Every structure is written in structure tokens, then in C-alpha cells.
């Protein structure tokens, strides 16, 4: 078992005084499609975890309990996730059950709303009552792994071999693999084909082409581009491809490259090519603007595809433009990773069997096809891109994608919020990009 004192200190250091600034990420299609809720797609609620003196007392009192892990039916795998959307929940359960049945096991599934998952995980970890199999948003893996409550996947014969490197990195902590994702999502540029054809335009590949297309297509109530700059993980998530492709880094926010990226981003609004309301829009709002014809282009994720198909919008999808043609897009990876918490050897082995089954080609392809995700394995993803052309841009981008926690580890959430605030302040015109990023950098320096 991990050290109680070390665990409590880790919780205190990670969360005290800053968790009220954390936001749920990604992901989510909130009723848009049966997409899983783990990336910043359309969700803007904050993670309301606060560790105060009173709660620390509760943690200390409950930490001595076993939580009944040893008394669980050995043939039942207790699983926890935050896929509460009805369709997503049903489809995810089908894959879980299929894999469990192969080994003569049954799944006891628990799902909680996104903003309640991490508080529950941290409480259960303290009480030594974590489930056998857990799916967490990939930026949260670092926080959970830091407590010592997770087991390394290598001991069950699971590895990241054949998976995209950034996906393996997203599931690792201090060089050890703790989680793997059946699939991930990311961002791309959607464009209105009809508007582009009428204007005689080709989809943009560079920042300059993006600005020119947006300027040409901004007419009346239609803006050239729509994106989310809301003060949460969604806002950071949408800006990160532009920050990274220009050479900026989350741990070097005051660098000239970082400043220029924010100047470009905010300049789209300042020049009237994007609405000032982007500071209030989550990603579902952005979909609405695009589908209704009020935006000629949008930055959004693969979870948008079904909504756009249902709306009858004539659209195309291309990788996110970069400063120059030689630079590959660097998008953040969204999605959940499956982890095996420390319970008992037998329970851990059974949970790992189920997870390993979910990572097999057919099950991975089934799961990702249902949710418009990119399979984590390179060979499966390449086949998927051939079978589903609309997903090809997303597959292309995952190859050069980035784990959001790569630079900062568990500090990511706090710095992400500071960056979202900087983007908002700049677009609102209350400060310059340089000053806004200086403020965010100070937060990054002081993040625990």
C-alpha cells in the first residue's frame, strides 16, 4: 500500500488553494453525439474540488479503511467512468461486457458526472476503495498516479508498443506507463464548402491563408471563423495548436513565439474576422454558429461530425493551419485513459485483462467508430482513415499530436486555467498579449 502521509501531502499539494480554478476538460459532446466526455469538447463546468481542514480530517479518518475491496466478488470487475450520455454509456458498456465475458467476468459499472469524477477518485483512493478499472481524462492521470494509487501496466504485459507516441506519453507518469486509451480525439478546421466554392477559395493551410479566407468570407452576420475562447480548459485546448505550432510552450509562456501566437489568435477578433462573443462560447456553441451559417469556418473536434451531418451542412475538414507549410499541426490529445488501481492481485489481473481486450484491434475500432475517435494504435488508425475519409485529418494530426501534460505534469491544470484567463483578457482588450502571458507565466512558476 502507498504511504498515507505521502498520499495526503500529495493531495494537499496538488489541490489546496488551486483546484477551484481547475476545469473539466475536454471533451464533450453534451448530447451532440454519443461522444465520451473526456476532452474539452463542449463542456465548461469547473471541477469543484476543495481540500480544506475539515476535508483533510475526513481523509485521515477514512484512510485506514479498506473500503471492502477484499470482500468484492472476485468474478466482478468494478469499473468507474464519467460517460453519462445515454448513447455513449450504452455503447461503452457493450464493449466492457464483451471483454469481461471472454474471461468469465461480469462488469459492475459506475458512472458519475464529469465534475464529480476526480473528487470521487481522490476520496476513494484515500479510503483504499478505488474500483478495479478506472477511466479518467488523460490530463488527470498525473494527479492520480502521483498519489501512488495506480499500478504499472507493464506488470500485466500491457505496453504502448504500436500506439501513437503522444498517447503513450499521456498515459505515463515519471517514465512509467499507468494508462492507455482505446482512442483519442483532437481538433481540426471545418469549413463551409458552399461558401468556399462561391468565393473561389481553397481550404487554408497556413495562418496567412486562414486570415485571408476569414477576411473574404466575413459578410454581414457571418464571421470568417468561430472558435472557443471561454475561460476554461476548452479555451486553452483550442489555443494550444496555435501556441505549439509557432514554437511556444506552456512552460515558456513569455517567449516571443508564445506572444506571437496569442497576437495572431486575438488579432482574428480584433480585426472582426471572428466574433467577440468567442469569449463566451463553448465548443457546442461554436458548432451551432457554424451549422447555422454564421461562421464560414470553425475550430472543433471530431465529435462535431454527427451534428453537422444531421444539420445538412455542406462541410469539409482539414488539419489546423500552421505558420508555414513545412510545420506539422500540433494538436492536444483529448480522451480518457484506462488505469488499473491498486486493489488485490487477482482483481488487478482481471481488470487488466478487460483493459487489454479493449485495446485489441476489433474492439478498439468498434469503440472509436461509435464515437468518432481516432484509434490509439497506428495501424488501426491508418485503416480507419481509409474507411472513414472524414476522420483522415484527425488521424493525420494525432501522429504529431501532443499530450497536454508533457511539459508540466500535474501542474497542467493550474497553468491551463491561467492561460485561458490570458487569452480572455487579451481578446477582451483589457491587456496586451505580452502582459497577459507574463501574468500567466507567474502562475506557472508558482504552480505546485
From TrEMBL:
Belongs to the bacterial solute-binding protein 1 family. GO terms for molecular function: maltose binding. PANTHER family: MALTOSE-BINDING PERIPLASMIC PROTEIN, MALTOSE_MALTODEXTRIN-BINDING PERIPLASMIC PROTEIN. Residues 20-46 are annotated as: Disordered. GO terms for biological process: maltodextrin transmembrane transport; maltose transport. Pfam families: SBP_bac_8 (PF13416). One of its GO terms (cellular component) is ATP-binding cassette (ABC) transporter complex, substrate-binding subunit-containing. Residues 20-29 have a biased composition (Basic and acidic residues). Keywords: Signal, Transport. This is Carbohydrate ABC transporter substrate-binding protein, CUT1 family.
